[in-house]
Amino acid sequence: VQLQASGGGLVQAGGSLRLSCAASETIFSLKAMGWYRQAPGKQRELVASVTSGGSTNYANPVKGRFTISRDNAKNTVYLQMNSLKPEDTAVYYCNLEGYSDPWSRVNAWGQGTLVTVSS
Question: What is the structure's pLDDT at 75?
Answer without folding.
Answer: 87
